[in-house]
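user: can you give me the structure for this one chain? tokens are fine.
assistant: on it. calling the predictor now.
[tool input]
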Amino acid sequence: MALAIAVALAFSTCFVSYHRQRTVLVEAVTGCGSERRWGGALLGWLVPDQREQAVLVFMMKTLTRSSYHRLIIIG
């Protein structure tokens, strides 16, 4: 009986925390619109090919998510 309660409690806790984290990620504000316009205009001026822009944006977003990579970028 205790094992069943522990398993049910673990599953319910995981479900609640997953739902809460998903809500936070979906509703999170990523930045203001003026930053995007200026950054997009600057990126468009520096790199005219949209595929290359997409690769650069993907790389920067990936690198800035890790604290170790942010430290390397700052350095």
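assistant: here you go. Residues 34 and 40 are 10 Å apart (CA to CA). Residues 2-27 form the longest helix (26 residues).
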